[in-house]
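Input:
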Amino acid sequence: MSSRDVSPPGVVSAIPLEGLPELEESDDLALLLHAAAARAGGLRDADVVVVAQKAVSKVEGRVVRLADVEPSARAIELAGPDGDPRQVETILRESVDVVRSRPPLVIAETRHGFVCASAGVDASNTPAEDTVVLLPLDPDASARRLRERLVALAAVDVGVIVSDSFGRAWRQGTTDVALGVAGITPLLDLRGTADARGRELETTQIAVADEIAAAAELVLGKARSVPAAIVRGVDVRGDGSAAELVMPRERDLFR
Amino acid sequence: MSSRDVSPPGVVSAIPLEGLPELEESDDLALLLHAAAARAGGLRDADVVVVAQKAVSKVEGRVVRLADVEPSARAIELAGPDGDPRQVETILRESVDVVRSRPPLVIAETRHGFVCASAGVDASNTPAEDTVVLLPLDPDASARRLRERLVALAAVDVGVIVSDSFGRAWRQGTTDVALGVAGITPLLDLRGTADARGRELETTQIAVADEIAAAAELVLGKARSVPAAIVRGVDVRGDGSAAELVMPRERDLFR
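Output:
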Protein backbone atom coordinates (compact mmCIF):
# COMPACT_ATOMS: atom_id res chain seq x y z
CA MET A 1 0.00 0.00 0.00
CA SER A 2 1.32 3.44 -0.84
CA SER A 3 1.76 5.95 1.94
CA ARG A 4 -0.69 8.20 0.07
CA ASP A 5 -3.35 6.04 1.70
CA VAL A 6 -2.03 6.46 5.22
CA SER A 7 -3.52 9.72 6.44
CA PRO A 8 -7.13 10.64 5.73
CA PRO A 9 -8.07 14.08 7.06
CA GLY A 10 -7.95 14.32 10.84
CA VAL A 11 -5.90 11.16 11.30
CA VAL A 12 -2.36 11.31 12.70
CA SER A 13 0.00 8.53 11.63
CA ALA A 14 3.43 7.40 12.82
CA ILE A 15 5.27 5.66 9.98
CA PRO A 16 8.48 3.76 10.80
CA LEU A 17 11.61 4.49 8.76
CA GLU A 18 13.12 1.05 8.35
CA GLY A 19 16.18 -0.48 6.75
CA LEU A 20 18.82 1.96 7.97
CA PRO A 21 22.28 0.43 8.46
CA GLU A 22 24.13 0.32 11.79
CA LEU A 23 25.21 3.96 12.11
CA GLU A 24 28.80 5.16 12.43
CA GLU A 25 30.52 8.50 12.86
CA SER A 26 30.27 10.78 9.82
CA ASP A 27 27.50 8.72 8.17
CA ASP A 28 25.19 10.92 6.12
CA LEU A 29 22.13 10.46 8.31
CA ALA A 30 19.93 12.88 6.36
CA LEU A 31 20.59 10.96 3.14
CA LEU A 32 19.83 7.63 4.85
CA LEU A 33 16.60 9.07 6.31
CA HIS A 34 15.62 10.46 2.91
CA ALA A 35 16.14 7.04 1.29
CA ALA A 36 14.15 5.30 4.03
CA ALA A 37 11.37 7.87 3.70
CA ALA A 38 11.32 7.32 -0.06
CA ARG A 39 10.83 3.58 0.55
CA ALA A 40 7.91 4.50 2.86
CA GLY A 41 6.25 6.55 0.10
CA GLY A 42 8.13 9.82 0.49
CA LEU A 43 7.99 12.89 2.69
CA ARG A 44 5.24 15.50 2.43
CA ASP A 45 4.82 19.09 3.54
CA ALA A 46 4.22 19.39 7.31
CA ASP A 47 5.54 15.89 8.04
CA VAL A 48 7.67 15.68 11.17
CA VAL A 49 10.69 13.37 10.99
CA VAL A 50 11.46 12.06 14.48
CA VAL A 51 15.00 10.70 14.90
CA ALA A 52 16.21 8.87 18.00
CA GLN A 53 18.96 10.78 19.80
CA LYS A 54 21.30 7.79 19.72
CA ALA A 55 21.33 7.74 15.92
CA VAL A 56 22.21 11.44 15.87
CA SER A 57 24.86 11.08 18.58
CA LYS A 58 26.53 8.16 16.79
CA VAL A 59 26.95 10.00 13.48
CA GLU A 60 28.16 13.06 15.42
CA GLY A 61 30.80 10.99 17.19
CA ARG A 62 29.36 11.61 20.65
CA VAL A 63 30.83 8.36 21.95
CA VAL A 64 33.24 7.94 24.88
CA ARG A 65 35.55 4.98 25.55
CA LEU A 66 35.31 4.25 29.25
CA ALA A 67 38.95 3.06 29.27
CA ASP A 68 39.95 6.68 28.62
CA VAL A 69 37.99 8.06 31.61
CA GLU A 70 39.66 8.69 34.99
CA PRO A 71 36.91 8.76 37.65
CA SER A 72 36.93 11.49 40.29
CA ALA A 73 36.36 10.80 43.99
CA ARG A 74 32.80 12.12 43.61
CA ALA A 75 32.11 9.74 40.72
CA ILE A 76 33.39 6.80 42.78
CA GLU A 77 31.11 7.84 45.65
CA LEU A 78 28.01 8.31 43.45
CA ALA A 79 28.61 5.03 41.62
CA GLY A 80 28.42 3.04 44.85
CA PRO A 81 29.32 -0.63 44.87
CA ASP A 82 27.11 -1.50 41.84
CA GLY A 83 27.92 1.33 39.42
CA ASP A 84 30.80 1.99 37.04
CA PRO A 85 32.69 5.06 38.35
CA ARG A 86 33.97 5.80 34.82
CA GLN A 87 30.39 5.93 33.55
CA VAL A 88 29.35 8.17 36.47
CA GLU A 89 32.35 10.41 35.76
CA THR A 90 31.12 10.74 32.18
CA ILE A 91 27.66 11.64 33.51
CA LEU A 92 29.13 14.32 35.80
CA ARG A 93 31.07 15.84 32.89
CA GLU A 94 27.78 16.10 30.94
CA SER A 95 25.99 17.72 33.89
CA VAL A 96 25.66 21.15 35.40
CA ASP A 97 23.86 19.84 38.49
CA VAL A 98 23.04 16.55 40.20
CA VAL A 99 19.33 16.80 41.05
CA ARG A 100 19.01 13.49 42.91
CA SER A 101 21.20 10.43 43.40
CA ARG A 102 20.81 6.98 44.88
CA PRO A 103 23.86 4.92 43.90
CA PRO A 104 24.28 3.99 41.17
CA LEU A 105 21.34 6.10 39.90
CA VAL A 106 22.07 9.76 39.09
CA ILE A 107 19.37 12.22 38.02
CA ALA A 108 21.20 15.18 36.54
CA GLU A 109 20.60 18.45 34.79
CA THR A 110 22.45 18.49 31.49
CA ARG A 111 24.18 21.48 29.94
CA HIS A 112 21.06 21.89 27.79
CA GLY A 113 18.86 22.18 30.90
CA PHE A 114 17.26 18.73 30.60
CA VAL A 115 16.72 16.86 33.85
CA CYS A 116 17.06 13.14 33.20
CA ALA A 117 18.63 9.90 34.35
CA SER A 118 22.40 9.71 33.80
CA ALA A 119 22.41 13.08 31.99
CA GLY A 120 21.38 11.08 28.93
CA VAL A 121 24.59 9.00 28.96
CA ASP A 122 23.64 5.53 27.73
CA ALA A 123 25.56 2.26 27.70
CA SER A 124 23.10 0.21 25.63
CA ASN A 125 23.15 -0.04 21.84
CA THR A 126 26.60 1.55 21.71
CA PRO A 127 28.98 1.21 18.75
CA ALA A 128 31.60 -0.87 20.63
CA GLU A 129 32.26 -2.71 23.91
CA ASP A 130 32.95 -0.47 26.89
CA THR A 131 31.71 2.71 25.26
CA VAL A 132 28.86 5.06 26.19
CA VAL A 133 26.87 7.41 23.99
CA LEU A 134 26.34 11.05 25.04
CA LEU A 135 23.55 13.42 24.06
CA PRO A 136 24.29 15.67 21.06
CA LEU A 137 26.13 18.86 22.05
CA ASP A 138 23.32 21.00 20.61
CA PRO A 139 20.26 18.90 19.66
CA ASP A 140 18.46 21.91 18.12
CA ALA A 141 21.46 22.45 15.84
CA SER A 142 21.47 18.71 14.99
CA ALA A 143 17.77 18.94 14.10
CA ARG A 144 18.36 22.05 12.01
CA ARG A 145 21.19 20.42 10.02
CA LEU A 146 19.06 17.32 9.34
CA ARG A 147 16.10 19.48 8.38
CA GLU A 148 18.08 21.63 5.94
CA ARG A 149 19.36 18.56 4.09
CA LEU A 150 15.95 16.82 4.11
CA VAL A 151 14.21 19.92 2.78
CA ALA A 152 16.82 20.17 0.02
CA LEU A 153 16.71 16.45 -0.81
CA ALA A 154 12.94 16.00 -0.73
CA ALA A 155 11.87 19.51 -1.74
CA VAL A 156 9.17 19.56 0.94
CA ASP A 157 8.74 21.58 4.13
CA VAL A 158 9.28 19.04 6.93
CA GLY A 159 10.04 19.47 10.61
CA VAL A 160 12.60 17.45 12.56
CA ILE A 161 12.59 16.28 16.17
CA VAL A 162 15.57 14.62 17.89
CA SER A 163 13.97 12.42 20.57
CA ASP A 164 15.05 10.47 23.63
CA SER A 165 13.39 8.25 26.25
CA PHE A 166 13.13 10.05 29.60
CA GLY A 167 11.83 8.80 32.91
CA ARG A 168 9.40 11.01 34.81
CA ALA A 169 8.96 12.05 38.41
CA TRP A 170 6.09 10.12 40.07
CA ARG A 171 5.40 7.82 37.11
CA GLN A 172 6.91 4.50 36.09
CA GLY A 173 8.41 3.90 32.70
CA THR A 174 9.84 6.19 30.07
CA THR A 175 8.14 8.22 27.38
CA ASP A 176 9.95 9.78 24.45
CA VAL A 177 10.40 13.55 24.47
CA ALA A 178 11.92 16.14 22.14
CA LEU A 179 15.54 17.14 22.84
CA GLY A 180 15.96 19.16 19.67
CA VAL A 181 13.55 20.57 17.11
CA ALA A 182 13.70 22.36 13.79
CA GLY A 183 10.94 23.80 11.64
CA ILE A 184 8.22 23.26 14.23
CA THR A 185 6.53 24.95 17.18
CA PRO A 186 7.19 22.60 20.12
CA LEU A 187 4.75 24.16 22.57
CA LEU A 188 1.16 24.78 21.53
CA ASP A 189 0.04 27.84 23.45
CA LEU A 190 -3.70 27.95 24.12
CA ARG A 191 -3.57 30.86 26.54
CA GLY A 192 -6.38 33.21 25.73
CA THR A 193 -8.33 30.46 23.97
CA ALA A 194 -11.79 29.95 25.39
CA ASP A 195 -13.62 26.69 26.02
CA ALA A 196 -17.11 25.98 24.65
CA ARG A 197 -18.63 28.05 27.47
CA GLY A 198 -16.32 31.03 27.00
CA ARG A 199 -14.13 30.25 30.01
CA GLU A 200 -10.38 30.55 29.42
CA LEU A 201 -8.64 27.18 29.23
CA GLU A 202 -6.58 26.23 32.28
CA THR A 203 -4.35 23.74 30.49
CA THR A 204 -2.82 26.48 28.47
CA GLN A 205 0.25 24.91 26.93
CA ILE A 206 0.53 21.53 25.27
CA ALA A 207 3.98 20.03 24.76
CA VAL A 208 3.06 18.91 21.27
CA ALA A 209 6.66 18.08 20.30
CA ASP A 210 6.88 15.67 23.22
CA GLU A 211 3.57 14.10 22.18
CA ILE A 212 4.83 13.71 18.61
CA ALA A 213 8.02 12.10 19.97
CA ALA A 214 5.89 9.75 22.10
CA ALA A 215 3.72 8.82 19.12
CA ALA A 216 6.88 8.08 17.09
CA GLU A 217 8.25 5.86 19.86
CA LEU A 218 5.28 3.55 19.37
CA VAL A 219 6.83 2.51 16.04
CA LEU A 220 10.51 2.91 16.91
CA GLY A 221 10.93 0.08 19.35
CA LYS A 222 14.09 -0.22 21.35
CA ALA A 223 15.48 -3.59 20.30
CA ARG A 224 14.66 -3.37 16.58
CA SER A 225 16.71 -1.21 14.27
CA VAL A 226 14.20 1.54 13.54
CA PRO A 227 15.88 4.80 14.57
CA ALA A 228 13.36 7.18 13.02
CA ALA A 229 9.73 7.71 12.05
CA ILE A 230 7.56 10.13 10.16
CA VAL A 231 4.66 11.63 12.10
CA ARG A 232 2.06 12.83 9.62
CA GLY A 233 -1.15 14.77 10.14
CA VAL A 234 -0.11 17.30 12.81
CA ASP A 235 0.81 20.59 11.19
CA VAL A 236 3.05 22.29 13.73
CA ARG A 237 5.23 24.17 11.29
CA GLY A 238 7.07 27.03 12.95
CA ASP A 239 10.47 28.18 14.08
CA GLY A 240 10.83 26.99 17.68
CA SER A 241 13.55 25.57 19.89
CA ALA A 242 13.48 22.66 22.32
CA ALA A 243 14.61 25.17 24.96
CA GLU A 244 10.94 26.22 25.09
CA LEU A 245 10.18 22.79 26.56
CA VAL A 246 12.55 23.28 29.50
CA MET A 247 10.87 24.71 32.61
CA PRO A 248 12.68 27.90 33.58
CA ARG A 249 14.47 27.39 36.89
CA GLU A 250 12.56 30.24 38.58
CA ARG A 251 9.22 28.61 37.76
CA ASP A 252 10.38 25.08 38.64
CA LEU A 253 8.97 23.71 41.91
CA PHE A 254 11.06 20.52 41.66
CA ARG A 255 14.67 21.65 41.47
CA MET B 1 -11.85 6.91 2.63
CA SER B 2 -12.64 3.83 4.68
CA SER B 3 -10.68 3.22 7.85
CA ARG B 4 -9.52 -0.06 6.33
CA ASP B 5 -7.02 2.08 4.47
CA VAL B 6 -5.68 3.80 7.55
CA SER B 7 -3.12 1.40 8.97
CA PRO B 8 -0.69 -0.47 6.77
CA PRO B 9 1.57 -2.87 8.68
CA GLY B 10 3.96 -1.10 11.03
CA VAL B 11 2.06 2.19 11.00
CA VAL B 12 0.34 3.52 14.12
CA SER B 13 -2.67 5.77 13.59
CA ALA B 14 -4.68 8.03 15.87
CA ILE B 15 -8.21 8.41 14.52
CA PRO B 16 -10.47 11.07 16.06
CA LEU B 17 -13.95 10.08 17.25
CA GLU B 18 -16.05 13.05 16.22
CA GLY B 19 -19.63 14.14 16.48
CA LEU B 20 -20.33 13.24 20.09
CA PRO B 21 -22.89 15.48 21.79
CA GLU B 22 -22.19 17.67 24.84
CA LEU B 23 -22.05 15.01 27.57
CA GLU B 24 -24.26 14.90 30.66
CA GLU B 25 -24.58 12.70 33.71
CA SER B 26 -25.86 9.19 32.93
CA ASP B 27 -25.27 9.50 29.19
CA ASP B 28 -24.41 6.13 27.64
CA LEU B 29 -20.82 7.02 26.74
CA ALA B 30 -19.94 3.54 25.43
CA LEU B 31 -22.87 3.63 23.01
CA LEU B 32 -21.90 7.14 21.83
CA LEU B 33 -18.28 6.02 21.34
CA HIS B 34 -19.44 2.93 19.47
CA ALA B 35 -21.55 5.04 17.12
CA ALA B 36 -18.69 7.50 16.54
CA ALA B 37 -16.30 4.61 15.89
CA ALA B 38 -18.76 3.13 13.41
CA ARG B 39 -18.79 6.48 11.54
CA ALA B 40 -14.96 6.29 11.49
CA GLY B 41 -15.05 2.83 9.89
CA GLY B 42 -15.52 0.68 12.97
CA LEU B 43 -13.41 -0.79 15.74
CA ARG B 44 -10.98 -3.67 15.17
CA ASP B 45 -9.21 -6.18 17.35
CA ALA B 46 -6.31 -4.63 19.31
CA ASP B 47 -7.54 -1.06 18.78
CA VAL B 48 -7.20 1.14 21.84
CA VAL B 49 -10.02 3.60 22.50
CA VAL B 50 -8.64 6.63 24.34
CA VAL B 51 -11.28 8.71 26.14
CA ALA B 52 -10.59 12.06 27.77
CA GLN B 53 -11.09 11.95 31.52
CA LYS B 54 -13.49 14.89 31.45
CA ALA B 55 -15.93 12.99 29.23
CA VAL B 56 -15.88 10.07 31.66
CA SER B 57 -16.20 12.29 34.72
CA LYS B 58 -19.16 14.15 33.26
CA VAL B 59 -21.21 11.03 32.56
CA GLU B 60 -20.24 9.69 35.99
CA GLY B 61 -21.52 12.88 37.65
CA ARG B 62 -18.12 13.84 39.07
CA VAL B 63 -19.05 17.52 39.09
CA VAL B 64 -19.07 19.83 42.11
CA ARG B 65 -20.96 23.13 42.45
CA LEU B 66 -18.58 25.59 44.07
CA ALA B 67 -21.52 27.34 45.77
CA ASP B 68 -21.94 24.18 47.88
CA VAL B 69 -18.29 24.16 49.07
CA GLU B 70 -17.27 25.68 52.41
CA PRO B 71 -13.52 26.43 52.26
CA SER B 72 -11.30 25.50 55.19
CA ALA B 73 -8.66 27.83 56.62
CA ARG B 74 -5.98 25.82 54.80
CA ALA B 75 -7.80 26.18 51.47
CA ILE B 76 -8.04 29.94 51.98
CA GLU B 77 -4.30 30.07 52.73
CA LEU B 78 -3.29 27.92 49.73
CA ALA B 79 -5.58 29.85 47.38
CA GLY B 80 -3.79 33.12 48.10
CA PRO B 81 -5.21 36.40 46.83
CA ASP B 82 -5.65 35.11 43.23
CA GLY B 83 -7.22 31.68 43.78
CA ASP B 84 -10.74 30.52 44.56
CA PRO B 85 -10.69 29.02 48.08
CA ARG B 86 -13.73 26.86 47.23
CA GLN B 87 -11.85 25.37 44.28
CA VAL B 88 -8.76 24.77 46.46
CA GLU B 89 -10.98 23.14 49.10
CA THR B 90 -12.28 20.80 46.41
CA ILE B 91 -8.67 20.02 45.44
CA LEU B 92 -7.76 19.25 49.06
CA ARG B 93 -10.73 16.89 49.38
CA GLU B 94 -9.48 14.99 46.32
CA SER B 95 -5.93 14.77 47.70
CA VAL B 96 -4.02 12.61 50.13
CA ASP B 97 -1.00 14.92 50.08
CA VAL B 98 0.03 18.36 48.88
CA VAL B 99 3.38 17.83 47.14
CA ARG B 100 4.12 21.49 46.34
CA SER B 101 2.17 24.73 46.44
CA ARG B 102 2.70 28.28 45.29
CA PRO B 103 -0.60 30.14 45.62
CA PRO B 104 -2.86 29.60 43.83
CA LEU B 105 -1.04 26.59 42.28
CA VAL B 106 -1.35 23.28 44.16
CA ILE B 107 0.49 20.12 43.06
CA ALA B 108 -1.20 17.27 44.90
CA GLU B 109 -1.20 13.52 45.17
CA THR B 110 -4.68 12.20 44.45
CA ARG B 111 -6.31 9.27 46.17
CA HIS B 112 -5.28 7.18 43.15
CA GLY B 113 -1.61 8.07 43.69
CA PHE B 114 -1.32 10.46 40.74
CA VAL B 115 0.76 13.58 41.34
CA CYS B 116 -0.67 16.42 39.29
CA ALA B 117 -1.77 20.03 39.29
CA SER B 118 -4.97 20.71 41.27
CA ALA B 119 -5.44 16.96 41.95
CA GLY B 120 -7.03 16.85 38.50
CA VAL B 121 -9.82 19.27 39.49
CA ASP B 122 -10.61 21.35 36.42
CA ALA B 123 -12.73 24.47 35.96
CA SER B 124 -12.64 24.61 32.14
CA ASN B 125 -15.14 22.90 29.83
CA THR B 126 -17.45 22.21 32.77
CA PRO B 127 -21.17 21.46 32.39
CA ALA B 128 -22.35 24.70 34.10
CA GLU B 129 -21.15 28.04 35.46
CA ASP B 130 -19.30 27.85 38.76
CA THR B 131 -18.77 24.10 38.68
CA VAL B 132 -15.57 22.03 38.59
CA VAL B 133 -15.01 18.53 37.27
CA LEU B 134 -13.19 15.92 39.40
CA LEU B 135 -11.26 12.86 38.25
CA PRO B 136 -13.25 9.61 38.14
CA LEU B 137 -13.34 7.82 41.50
CA ASP B 138 -11.72 4.72 39.97
CA PRO B 139 -10.48 5.36 36.41
CA ASP B 140 -9.50 1.70 35.90
CA ALA B 141 -13.07 0.70 36.75
CA SER B 142 -14.38 3.39 34.38
CA ALA B 143 -12.15 1.98 31.62
CA ARG B 144 -13.29 -1.57 32.38
CA ARG B 145 -16.98 -0.63 32.19
CA LEU B 146 -16.48 1.18 28.88
CA ARG B 147 -14.45 -1.73 27.52
CA GLU B 148 -17.02 -4.35 28.48
CA ARG B 149 -19.77 -2.46 26.66
CA LEU B 150 -17.60 -1.70 23.61
CA VAL B 151 -16.51 -5.34 23.32
CA ALA B 152 -20.15 -6.41 23.51
CA LEU B 153 -21.39 -3.77 21.06
CA ALA B 154 -18.61 -4.12 18.47
CA ALA B 155 -17.73 -7.80 18.99
CA VAL B 156 -14.01 -7.01 18.86
CA ASP B 157 -11.24 -7.14 21.46
CA VAL B 158 -10.39 -3.50 22.13
CA GLY B 159 -8.53 -1.82 24.96
CA VAL B 160 -9.60 1.38 26.69
CA ILE B 161 -7.53 4.21 28.18
CA VAL B 162 -9.00 7.08 30.22
CA SER B 163 -6.55 9.95 29.64
CA ASP B 164 -5.81 13.35 31.10
CA SER B 165 -3.37 16.21 30.44
CA PHE B 166 -0.67 16.37 33.11
CA GLY B 167 2.15 18.83 33.58
CA ARG B 168 5.61 17.45 34.27
CA ALA B 169 8.45 18.33 36.58
CA TRP B 170 11.23 20.21 34.74
CA ARG B 171 9.39 20.47 31.42
CA GLN B 172 6.95 23.03 30.09
CA GLY B 173 3.54 22.11 28.77
CA THR B 174 1.27 19.16 29.34
CA THR B 175 1.25 15.73 27.73
CA ASP B 176 -1.63 13.31 27.98
CA VAL B 177 -1.19 10.26 30.20
CA ALA B 178 -3.27 7.23 31.14
CA LEU B 179 -5.32 7.50 34.35
CA GLY B 180 -7.22 4.27 33.84
CA VAL B 181 -6.77 1.30 31.52
CA ALA B 182 -8.63 -1.88 30.60
CA GLY B 183 -7.64 -4.73 28.34
CA ILE B 184 -4.08 -3.52 27.83
CA THR B 185 -0.60 -3.78 29.34
CA PRO B 186 0.30 -0.17 30.24
CA LEU B 187 3.99 -0.73 30.92
CA LEU B 188 6.13 -2.52 28.33
CA ASP B 189 8.81 -4.32 30.29
CA LEU B 190 12.03 -4.83 28.36
CA ARG B 191 14.07 -6.00 31.33
CA GLY B 192 16.12 -8.97 30.28
CA THR B 193 15.89 -7.96 26.61
CA ALA B 194 19.28 -7.53 24.99
CA ASP B 195 20.37 -4.87 22.54
CA ALA B 196 21.93 -5.68 19.16
CA ARG B 197 25.28 -6.29 20.89
CA GLY B 198 23.89 -8.55 23.60
CA ARG B 199 24.01 -5.90 26.33
CA GLU B 200 20.91 -5.67 28.51
CA LEU B 201 18.81 -2.59 27.79
CA GLU B 202 19.00 0.19 30.38
CA THR B 203 15.71 1.80 29.48
CA THR B 204 13.85 -1.20 30.71
CA GLN B 205 10.26 -0.06 30.97
CA ILE B 206 8.30 1.98 28.45
CA ALA B 207 5.10 3.68 29.59
CA VAL B 208 3.34 2.64 26.40
CA ALA B 209 -0.13 3.58 27.70
CA ASP B 210 1.07 7.13 28.32
CA GLU B 211 2.56 7.25 24.81
CA ILE B 212 -0.74 6.01 23.34
CA ALA B 213 -2.58 8.69 25.34
CA ALA B 214 -0.12 11.31 24.01
CA ALA B 215 -0.60 10.12 20.42
CA ALA B 216 -4.39 10.35 20.89
CA GLU B 217 -4.10 13.89 22.25
CA LEU B 218 -2.69 14.97 18.89
CA VAL B 219 -6.17 14.46 17.42
CA LEU B 220 -8.27 15.32 20.48
CA GLY B 221 -7.60 19.01 20.72
CA LYS B 222 -8.76 20.94 23.75
CA ALA B 223 -11.15 23.49 22.31
CA ARG B 224 -12.86 21.25 19.73
CA SER B 225 -15.42 18.66 20.78
CA VAL B 226 -13.45 15.49 20.16
CA PRO B 227 -13.37 13.66 23.49
CA ALA B 228 -11.98 10.35 22.21
CA ALA B 229 -9.81 8.67 19.61
CA ILE B 230 -8.89 5.25 18.35
CA VAL B 231 -5.18 4.39 18.40
CA ARG B 232 -4.58 1.57 15.92
CA GLY B 233 -1.47 -0.45 15.19
CA VAL B 234 -0.02 -0.97 18.68
CA ASP B 235 -1.05 -4.36 19.99
CA VAL B 236 -0.75 -4.02 23.76
CA ARG B 237 -3.55 -6.40 24.70
CA GLY B 238 -3.27 -7.55 28.29
CA ASP B 239 -4.84 -7.24 31.69
CA GLY B 240 -3.07 -4.35 33.39
CA SER B 241 -3.96 -1.46 35.68
CA ALA B 242 -2.98 2.19 35.56
CA ALA B 243 -1.63 1.67 39.09
CA GLU B 244 1.41 0.11 37.37
CA LEU B 245 2.20 3.57 35.99
CA VAL B 246 2.41 5.13 39.44
CA MET B 247 5.94 5.19 40.90
CA PRO B 248 5.85 3.39 44.25
CA ARG B 249 6.52 5.86 47.05
CA GLU B 250 9.60 3.95 48.26
CA ARG B 251 11.23 4.23 44.83
CA ASP B 252 10.21 7.84 44.30
CA LEU B 253 13.04 10.38 44.56
CA PHE B 254 10.68 13.33 44.13
CA ARG B 255 8.09 13.04 46.90
